[in-house]
Backbone:
């Protein structure tokens, strides 16, 4: 299999993997992230091998436009995936903060260093 065909297959698989973003149930998101990382690494190695050939082997190739479209789609889906993870992390932080306030609602009023201030002298 030549490198261009390998790049095409890896790009298509990565694009399809990013199509269905899993909710974080039962740790499936971690498995999906690992798969995405493996595909990105393999794709990066293939691109490096293509660059080592010297001249631009993709230039003028019949699949060049399709690979460019896949590349832009992959980047867009990766940004969306990153945004979803960021939103989930922010939501988790908010829920943790509200849970802490529920457990100890006066925590922000506590004096942690143990000093006592008396207004009289």
Residues:
């Amino acid at each position: 299999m030549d490198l261009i065909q390998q790049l095409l297959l890896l790009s298509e698989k990565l694009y399809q993997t990013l199509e269905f973003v899993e909710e974080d149930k039962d740790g499936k998101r971690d498995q999906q992230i690992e798969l995405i990382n493996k595909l990105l690494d393999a794709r990066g190695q293939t691109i490096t091998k293509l660059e080592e050939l010297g001249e631009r082997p993709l230039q003028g190739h019949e699949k060049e436009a399709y690979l460019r479209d896949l590349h832009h789609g992959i980047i867009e889906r990766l940004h969306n995936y990153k945004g979803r993870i960021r939103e989930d992390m922010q939501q988790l932080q908010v829920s943790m903060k509200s849970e802490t306030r529920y457990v100890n609602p006066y925590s922000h009023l506590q004096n942690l260093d143990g000093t006592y201030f008396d207004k009289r002298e």
Q: What stands out?
A: The chain has a mean pLDDT of 81.
